[in-house]
Each structure stands twice: as C-alpha cells, then as structure tokens.
Amino acid sequence: MKPRVYPAYIGGKDVTGDNGQFVHTVSTRAILENTFPSLRLKQDLDQGIIDLESAGDAVVGACAVADERMADLALESAAKAAPEWARRPLAERIEIGHRISQSLIEHGDPLVEILVAEGMPVSMAEGMIKGIPHTGWSRETLEFCAAQLEITRTDGARTRTVRRVPDGVVCINPPQNAATPNALAGITALLSGNTAVVRAPRGVALSCMYTMREVVAPVLEEAGAPPGTLNAFCGAPMLDQWLESPHVNDIVFYGGSKMGLEFERKCIAAGKKPILELAGNDCCVVWRDADLDLAVESLTAFFANSGQICNVPNQVIVHPAIAEELLAKLVVATQKIQPGYPDEPGVVLTPVLGADWFEGCLGEALAKGATLVHGGRRLEVDGTPSDTGFFIEPAIIRVDGLDGARSLSVVRDETFFPLLPVIVPTTDTGDEELFEQVLAFVNSNGYGLRNSVFVRDSAMIDRFLAGVVNGGTLMINDQHTGFLPFLPNQGGPGLTGGVFGEANYFMLRTSRLQGASIVRPAQ
Q1: pTM
Q2: DSSP 19
C-alpha cells in the first residue's frame, strides 16, 4: 500500500500550516515483529530526520499536525458556514447522509487496510466499518432521526410546528481506541444542520483523516455544501481552545468518566453544550433457562480488542443453577481466542496497554476470595507465555455472592483489559426474589451504557425491561455488543454520559427544541 499523506482539511481546502510537522503511521505488524527499530523509524520520521520516500514498506502514511492557528481557522470556517448550511432543507441533508453512507461502503476495503495497519484486528475492522452504513448511518436510523427533527400540526389557519434547530458548530474529540467509527458517529450532527470540526488523535490519525477527506468531504463538496461545513485535522487535544472560542456551541467528548465529568462542568461554565461518551461497565445476566451457547457467544465478545472497548459485557451475573455449566462452556470458547498479527483472520486480541493495571485488579480480586477459572498470563504474539509479552491471555474469574462483588475494582470500575468476572449469587431464596436482587445489582452499577439478559421466560423478559433503568441500550437474547439499525448504539446515563446522559443520536443531541405557531395573513 502506497503511503497516504493528508494535510488538514479546513474551509474546503488542504492546509499544511507553517510548522510543516507530520505524524507518521508505522504498521502494527512491523512494530510487533521488530519493536524498537520500528519505533525509532517513526520517531525519526516525525522529527524530520528522514523522509517518507526512504522509509520503506513499514510506513503506511502521514498526517499534518495542526498548530493553534490552524485549529482557530477550522473554528472560524465552521462558524462562517453554519448559517448557510442550516438553511439547507432537511430532506436534502438527509439525502446527503445516504450518499455518505454509500461512499463509506465504496471505501470499505482501503479503510479496513488502514485500520489494520493501525492495529485493529481485521475481523473487527471489517465488522465495524462495513457495518456502519447498515446501522448508525442506515436509512432507518437517519430517517427516524429526521422524523424527530420536525413535527407539524394544522388547526384551521394556524400551523403549529415543534422542531429541533441546529446548535451551530460541533467539535468532535474521538477516542484513541476507536477514533474513526466514533468520528463517523459524531458527524451525523451535520445532518441536523450543524457544521463540524473533527480532531483526529495523533496515534490513529490516518484512518480518521482518510475517512473525513476521502469518504465524507467529496460528498459534501459535490452537494454544494459551503466550505467549512466539515473541518478535520490531526493534532494534540485542544479542549481548552474549544472552550474559550466564541464559535463553538457543542463539544462531543470521549474519554474516562473522571476527566469527562470534570470537563462537563467546564463546558457548562463556558456556556457550551457537553455531549459525553465516557466509560462503560456493562452487565450481562444469564438466567437459569438461558440458551447457554448463545450467551457464551455474546460473552466472548468481551475479549475483542483485548477488552479495550466500551460496549462489551464487562461483568456477568449467572443463575447459580447453571453457573458451572456456563463457566465450562465459556472456558472452552475462550481457549480458542489467541493473539496474533492484526492482519491475520480470526485474531481478536490486541496488545494491552494497562498490563500492570490488569495484574493489580486480578491480584485484588483473588485476595478478596475470587477464583481464577482461566487465563491471566502475559503472551507473545505467537501465544508463547512471557513475562514481557504485549498480550494478555483472556482471563475469567468467579466471584461468589452479590453483596461484596462491587468491592472489587474489576466489578466496580470500567476496565480496559481481558479480565471477565462471572458473579454467582449465593442465596436460598426462590427465583422470583433472586431475579429482583439481580435487577437491583444491575441498577446499582454507576455506569449506564448497555445491559443484556439471556432468558427464555417471557415474564422475566418483561420484568427486565421494566426494571433495568440505567442502560442506554438493553439487549434481550441478542448480542450484547451488536450494533443495529434504528436503535441507539451509544450513550447512557451515569458515569457513561454525565448528568445529561441518555441514549445517543448525535443528530438529535446536537440540536434543541423550538416551537412555532404560524398564522399566514390571507392573500
């Protein structure tokens, strides 16, 4: 693959800036095969000691690094374009959304190649990128949101309209672990009439810039969108600059809950709308009559990306009558999950950045009475145990009893490593009371991204739907991590979305309600 080079995209133009600095992407395979020389190569490229043409096949691309002036120019361009873009009829903007979705399909293969080079396993990259046009950017989803943007009633000569009007300039700060799909989610704000500024994280800038520059921007340009409707650049975090800018209306923030909730307060003080996509610590309940094979298939998705994504089943609560059988099936399935290079089919594990964090949480859980059921060793890329391996063998622990479970960090807090706690209630009550205890445990979770249950009894399904209140999305006998058309794929209350958190459609969250009564004079 020939290296791709992307300047910033600001005001409809490619902008490099005065500093001439670029950040380079060296393939993850090269780094895993020959770590220190590959990292030195990247360092030399970033510092301009060697040029891209002499770097060799390990380098897949480069992105210009925006300075403060370029970031200001992006905000100014977005603000200048906002009034004209907001006047574009809703139906036209939605049609542009359909074209962007189609463009994403057409660019799926090269985008997957870049994501794999950045370190995302090919199976995950294909499922994610090729699924987005049929989920978050599907016709069903876009048209559902469009239907919420304007509702009209007629009463004689009076027309009453309740509509959502765009907030203005929306700044999007996608996360390092999944920058491109989250940037794509954020820019659906364009379709409700906002303009957007996207900051691509330096570590995975190439896929994000490719998507904005090759997939989205040409569609907007062809449709005659004003220059500045979309602006994208690679750079260091610039949240303070966004908070201080008079041009910014909304900031979409991805990150940890502690930092995110502090940022929420700063946004409110600065008069900006914070839209938070923070941590997840999802619960999955497996009841006594569950389809265990289906449940295990869903639970093993926890280990995708080595557990370093948000919307996975971080903890399992299993009925004691089937706990042993579920654990046995889960171990068998987990043993098949192996490390490897991201371009190899079937690989789902990635290097774990928080290996010390993993070992600390595992040690605490075992010291407090949990049982290690499987895994937990450091591994090399070929699966060989090693004290210094970049990978961690998927680990399962058993925790007996609900009462003390949340005293364990691995249960209480969001984790970003492959350690799955399976919690087995200890009780002599009947199933009716036990189910209520489990629902209370799920609701006691401080996070609110997703929750799921596997149960056949229709009455129990209804009780789960009625009783679980802290999830932005509930999955019933369905894949916990599944993304579906029409349903919200992100968002939730609590530590997931802050005080204003809810299931998230960015088209709606970046707009505000307005009512209008219209009586037109007789002609």
Answers
A1: 0.95
A2: S
